[in-house]
Each structure stands twice: as structure tokens, then as C-alpha cells.
Design a protein that fits this description.
The complex is a heterodimer of chains A (249) and B (421). The termini of chain A are far apart. Chain A is an alpha/beta fold and 249 residues long. Chain A has helices at 35-49, 66-76, 94-108, 127-135, 188-194, 204-207, 235-244, and strands at 2-6, 9-11, 19-20, 23-24, 31-33, 55-62, 80-85, 112-116, 139-149, 152-159, 162-169, 172-176, 199-202. Chain A is globular and about 65 Å long. In chain A, 29% of the residues lie in helices and 28% in strands. In chain A, strands 11-10-9-12-8-1-6-7-13 form a nine-stranded mixed beta sheet, with helices on both faces. A two-stranded antiparallel sheet of chain A has the order 2-5. A two-stranded antiparallel sheet of chain A has the order 3-4. Chain B is α+β, with helices and mostly antiparallel strands and 421 residues long. Chain B has a four-stranded mixed beta sheet with strand order 1-4-5-8. Chain B has a four-stranded antiparallel beta sheet with strand order 2-3-7-6, covered by helices on one side. In chain B, strands 9-10 form a two-stranded antiparallel ribbon. In chain B, a hairpin with a 2-residue loop joins strand 2 (179-183) and strand 3. In chain B, helix 6 (121-141) packs antiparallel against helix 8 (269-303), helix 8 runs antiparallel to helix 11 and helix 10 (351-376) packs across helix 12 (404-419). The longest helix of chain B is centred in the last third of the chain and has 35 residues, at 269-303. Classes of the chains: A alpha/beta (249), B alpha+beta (421). At the A-B interface, helix 2 and helix 5 of A face helix 3 of B.
Chain lengths: 249, 421
């Protein structure tokens, strides 16, 4: 059983985002692996340690620097890495990523695809779902628990109403959520071992994927600054204020 | 410097042919001239070193940071943190892979120490002493049997410590009094050691004892002593700083050590001690720049949150000048440290540079930690913030692994032959 894990290089979650010229400033800003992707990699490694999987393939679609993220995935326990290289500052959108992943899935034939539920830069929460649709595979998103028994997959999903358990058979696409696991650190011995693991470069053209964005970003701006609240004395006052001052009812 | 040199030679040859000689090559200040330089800056690391640094920073922030205050208060290192250090491979950075280590560079070890110190100087020094003093001596001078017996343990779960100082011998290390008497296949150790880092948790002790006091320092021999051979913890010191790092006095009462546990040659212990402390010095420098940066990073955000007189205190010119100055000094200390590490890796002479790095880094750490508290003001003086801990922790930098005065002596002694007849 082989697992394909998608990883994305994003601005580090702890960095304070700055917006300039209707885009987020990315130069000289610390980047790291998308936190949800770390959880996906961790789950894949745990499945391998439990002998459910024999090989983990890590994939990233991005500029040259995405290789750092792939090397980290290798250091965390992936066996092979694939880098679909795009130009620096080229926009990479979920549909195109899903198409590229589909091409790799058809090439490498994994039994399970693990992805982060969303990337923290665009928060799209689309790639996994689109990939499953394109492949015609079952999907289980927002996974907080993953159980594998042979080719039977049981996933507990965190949904608005609570927890939902879904069952399917492999092959399937699973997107992972925060509480699935706590990712490990890349230990020094594993960092050294990662050096010998293969990293294959691919181009979208080779995969037959058109990376042209289908969505155009019109504007990027900071959310409005939080203004102070007010205290009210009664429910009537609250309703009056919501109606007349805030204009929301 | 390279681009300027090449510019000079370029118009030195032009001089012959041209009447008009430009004073400075028009490319001298352009970035493309610098891009042609083949020698990378001291901020250049291998991919492994970068990944390691990022991983250790994460580990320190997520696993160590939550326990820092508690460990400091109780003067006790959390066992799970020591275990974490072993699990991450951080206690065997340079150890060859056949003994359970990662066989990584000395600079990698330095980066580990630096990143840990940004969060907790105690955890940092525990890792530093274990790697740069104990592991390295075993790797360098151990027989195959000794390496096979002890290095794997030191890579997985056994903490090591370096036992040189005594109550009566600190800077004057070689007047140590601990005796090792040869009795058949054993040496019997008698004496005591003081100020030994890691000794509370250690299972392996590198003990320097004299086999023949009539030979003076040439009788000093290094012994690999296991805790079970009878090492006694006499007293655990209660300290101003690095409180979670155990510092104990040890007593050796007729401790029998097999003769095969002599590390290297009998009577050469003094040499090994000097050598290894030259390297260990760079580790302490790394700890100090970690403390300096850690304190700086804790204080700076506050400067842009706190407003007085309608402005962020970080925007007052007086404050700007202060934190800019400190940033310069931290960078200088960092470069001294990285350079000393790279010189050592290159196999070049690094004694002077290592002494300079340790001396200066400990001074900068004290300055930075002290200023950081001032910048944050009253609340920086409370124990609610981690700043006061950096201030307490930095003081040891001027004292252990060679006091600042000794570093100055070392540097002076190395300068003298350059300028004297």
C-alpha cells in the first residue's frame, strides 16, 4: 500500500502578514511547510510504522524553494519526493494543483492520498475535494481519526455539527484536520538519511497540465481593524443598537 | 573584499594603456560585482544544517519553552526534555553513525546549542557539554573497545559529564589533587571534583586524576568512569542562573576504575583537557549568542506594543540607538562564533578565535540581557516575563570553560610572538 502526501511551502504560521500593492509580501519572510501538511505527513509515517503502508511519496507543486519543504518531508519519513516546478511568483491554484496531483497519481498509482485540509495562505479547502472528483475516488475530509484495515478505510470527520464517521474502500483521498495527530520533529539522524532519498523534478508540461489560473485576484487587503465594543443595559437596548447603529437587523 | 581586489588588479593593468584612470571601477559598488564573489558569507550553511536549525528551533519552542519556568524554579531538568534531546539525535551530533550518531559537522552542533539557548540556557549547556566535551573526547581518543562500549550509550540514553575542576583548582586546573593509584588491573581514584555540569543526571564521567603527582601536570590522566563504579554526588549547587543545569560536587572514595578505561595515554590528560576546552569554548560562545538573541527577541515586540507620550517606545530615538547597538554586537558575536567553528572544521588553528568568540559572546549576552530588561521596564523586572532569567543565565558565560580573564591571557599570549622580537 503506497501513500501520496501533498505538501505546500507557505509563509510560516507565526509570521505577521503584511500586505502591499494588493498582494501579500513574501520576500524575506520565513516560510515553512503548511501545518496541515505536516499532519498529513505524520499520519502517513505512522501508517508506515504500523506496517499499513510500504512507501510514502511526497509531492509539492511550487517554485524552486519548494524543494526545501520536500526535503523536510523526506526528513520526517517520506521515501521519495516529487517536485512539480513552476516559475517563481507564478500563481498556483487548487484546480491546477488537483490536476497535477491527478497526473502523478495516475503515474505512481498510490492507494491513498493524504492532503492537508487547506493551505494557510489561501485557505481554499478545495484541492482534496477536487482531486477526488477528478479521480472519481471516495473522499474523507477534515479527518480527525484515520483507521485502516486492509483496504477498508474508516475516517472520523470533524464537521460543524460534531463528528461524522465515514467508511470507504481504498483508493481514496483523505484531507487532514488539526486534531488528527501531533507531528514529530525532523530528528537529526533522519535529516541526514533524507540526503540519500530521491527527489525527482517534473514540469507541468511533462504531466500534461495547464497551470494557467482560472481565478483572478482582484484585490488583497487587510481585514478591518477591530474596533471597541459597547456595553448595553438590556435586551431592548441591544436590539435597538443592532437595528439602528449596527444596521444588522 | 574580493570584488575590490579584482577591481584594483583590473585597472592596474589598464594603467599601462590608458591616460584616464578611473579612481574606482564603476562596478565596485554594484551588487553584480559582489555576486561574482566565490567565497560565501558566514551565514552560509548546508541544507542539513539549515533543516537541523529549523527543527531544533521548533523543538525548543514547542517542547522546551513550556517547561522553562518550572525547571528553573525547581532547579531540575525535566527528564522528558533530556529524553527528547536524545530522541532527536541532538546528543550525538558529531558521533559517527556506527555508534548511533549522525556524523554531522561541528557547526551543526553549534547551531543546536545556539537554538536551544534562545529558549533555555540550561538545556543548551547540558547538550553542549555532552556533545563538545564528552562525546568528542571519546571519539578522538577512545580505543575501538571504549568507543563501542560507551558511544552508543551516549547516543541513546546516557548523559556524560566532564570532571576537571576541583575546590582548589579552577583556572589553575592542573594543580588538581584527585589521585589515581595503579593497583594491578585497576586505578583507584580518590578525591573530589566541583562545579561539574550534568553530574546529577550523568551515567558516564570523564574524570581527570593524577597518577603520579611527582610528575606534576604530566601525571594527569583522563579516566572513563561509570556511575556504578562508585561516583558519589556530594552537593548540588543552588545557583544564580542556569539553575536547571545540574552543577554538583562529586566525591571519589576508593573508586576502582579498570585500567582499560584510561582514555588515550596515561599522563596526557592535561593535553586532552586543553584541546577539548578550546573547542568547547565555541560551544559556550554559541550558548551566549543564543541567550543574547533570545533576550532580544523577547523584548523587541514589546517596544512596538507599549506606548508612552503617544508613541511606541521603540520609536524613540534613544531606544532606537540602543537596540541598534545591541543588534550590531550580537551579530558581531555570532560571526566570531561561526567563524571559529568553521576554522576548526577546516582544520586550521582556531585557539585565538575561539577564545575571542567566547570572551566577546559572554560580554554581549550580559549587555543584551541587561538592556532587554531596561527596555521593557518594570514588567521586564518581574518573574512573569522570561527576561530576568536571561539576565541571570548570562553571567556564567564569563566564568565557566575558561574565565574571561583567562581568555584575555590566551589571546594576549597568542598576539605576543607576532609583535615581539
Amino acid at each position: 500500500m503506497r501513500i501520496l502526501v501533498g505538501v505546500k511551502r507557505v509563509i510560516d504560521y507565526a509570521v505577521k502578514i503584511r500586505v502591499a500593492n494588493s498582494r501579500v509580501v513574501t520576500e524575506n519572510v520565513k516560510h515553512s511547510m503548511n501545518p496541515f501538511d505536516e499532519i498529513a505527513v505524520e499520519e502517513a509515517v505512522r501508517l508506515k510504522e504500523k506496517k499499513h503502508a510500504s512507501e510514502i511519496l511526497a509531492v509539492s507543486i511550487g517554485p524552486t524553494k519548494s524543494q526545501e519543504t520536500l526535503r523536510t518531508a523526506l526528513a520526517l519519513g517520506a521515501d521519495k519526493a516529487f517536485h512539480v516546478e513552476v516559475a517563481e511568483n507564478e500563481e498556483v491554484q487548487p484546480l491546477q494543483v488537483a490536476k497535477a496531483l491527478k497526473a502523478i497519481v495516475e503515474k505512481e498509482k498510490p492507494d491513498l492520498v493524504l492532503l492537508g485540509k487547506q493551505a494557510i495562505d489561501d485557505d481554499s479547502n478545495q484541492t482534496g475535494q477536487m482531486l477526488a472528483g477528478l479521480l472519481g475516488w471516495p473522499q474523507a475530509t477534515f479527518a480527525s481519526k484515520v483507521d485502516l484495515n486492509g483496504r477498508d478505510l474508516t475516517v472520523t470527520r470533524e464537521v460543524d455539527g460534531g463528528l461524522e464517521t465515514v467508511k470507504s474502500k481504498l483508493p481514496a483521498v483523505v484531507t487532514v484536520d488539526l486534531r488528527l495527530n501531533e507531528p514529530r520533529y525532523a530528528s537529526l539522524p533522519n535529516i541526514m538519511k533524507a540526503k540519500k532519498k530521491p527527489l525527482t523534478k517534473l514540469t507541468p508540461a511533462e504531466l500534461g497540465v495547464d497551470m494557467t489560473p482560472r481565478l483572478q485576484i482582484l484585490e488583497v487587503s487587510e481585514p478591518p481593524k477591530r474596533s471597541g465594543g459597547k456595553k448595553v443595559g438590556s435586551v431592548d437596548e441591544l436590539i435597538e443598537k443592532l437595528k439602528n447603529e449596527a444596521g444588522v437587523i | 573584499m574580493l570584488p575590490f581586489k579584482s577591481s584594483v588588479s583590473k585597472f592596474a593593468s589598464r594603467r599601462i594603456n590608458q591616460n584616464i584612470i578611473p579612481l574606482i571601477s564603476k562596478n565596485a559598488f554594484s551588487t553584480s560585482a559582489f555576486a561574482r564573489s566565490a567565497i560565501p558569507s558566514l551565514h552560509t550553511f548546508t541544507e542539513d544544517e539549515e533543516m537541523l536549525r529549523a527543527s531544533v528551533a521548533k523543538f525548543a519552542k514547542e517542547q522546551v519553552k513550556p517547561k522553562v519556568k518550572e525547571m528553573d524554579e525547581h532547579e531540575l531538568m525535566d527528564k522528558s526534555i533530556i529524553q527528547g534531546l536524545f530522541e532527536q539525535g541532538l546528543m550525538a551530533v558529531e558521533t559517527p553513525t556506527e555508534y548511533g550518531g549522525s556524523g554531522t559537522s561541528f557547526t551543526a552542533a553549534i547551531l543546536v546549542v545556539e537554538e536551544l539557548a534562545k529558549v533555555d540556557a540550561s538545556v543548551s549547556v547540558a547538550c553542549d557539554v555532552h556533545n563538545t566535551l564528552v562525546n568528542t573526547l571519546l571519539i578522538k581518543y577512545g580505543t575501538l573497545a571504549q568507543k563501542e562500549k560507551y558511544l552508543p550509550k551516549m547516543s541513546t540514553d546516557t548523559v556524560g559529564c566532564f570532571c576537571l575542576s576541583e575546590a582548589g583548582s579552577g583556572s589553575d586546573a592542573f594543580t588538581l589533587q584527585t589521585r589515581a593509584e595503579k593497583q594491578g588491573d585497576y586505578y583507584v581514584l580518590n578525591g573530589s571534583k566541583m562545579w561539574i555540569t550534568n553530574s546529577y543526571e550523568a551515567g558516564i564521567f570523564l574524570v581527570f586524576a593524577n597518577v603520579d603527582p611527582s610528575k606534576g601536570y604530566k601525571g594527569i590522566t583522563c579516566f572513563i568512569v561509570e556511575k556504578d563504579m562508585g561516583v558519589q554526588i556530594a552537593k548540588k549547587e543552588s545557583k544564580l542562573g542556569i539553575r536547571a543545569s545540574s552543577t554538583c560536587s562529586l566525591t571519589f572514595e576508593d573508586v576502582k576504575v579498570p585500567a582499560e578505561n584510561v582514555l588515550g595515554e596515561v599522563g596526557k590528560g592535561y593535553k586532552y583537557a586543553i584541546e577539548i576546552l578550546n573547542e568547547g569554548r565555541i560551544g559556550i560562545a554559541a550558548q551566549m549568542i543564543g541567550i543574547a538573541q533570545g533576550a532580544f527577541d523577547e523584548a523587541m515586540p514589546y517596544l512596538f506594543q507599549r506606548k508612552q507620550f503617544g508613541e511606541f517606545i521603540g520609536d524613540f530615538q534613544g531606544m532606537q540607538h540602543q537596540y541598534a547597538q545591541i543588534a550590531v554586537e550580537i551579530e558581531a558575536a555570532r560571526l566570531l562564533t561561526y567563524n571559529a567553528a568553521r576554522l576548526k572544521e577546516q582544520g586550521k588553528n582556531f585557539v585565538k578565535e575561539a577564545a575571542m568568540a567566547k570572551l566577546y559572546s559572554s560580554q554581549v549576552a550580559e549587555k543584551a540581557a541587561s538592556k532587554a530588561i531596561e527596555w521593557v521596564g518594570g514588567v521586564g523586572f518581574t518573574r512573569d516575563l522570561p527576561l530576568e532569567k536571561y539576565y541571570r543565565d548570562c553571567k556564567i558565560g564569563a566564568i565557566y570553560e575558561g574565565t574571561s580573564n583567562i581568555q584575555l591571557q590566551t589571546i594576549a599570549k597568542l598576539l605576543r610572538p607576532v609583535y615581539s622580537q
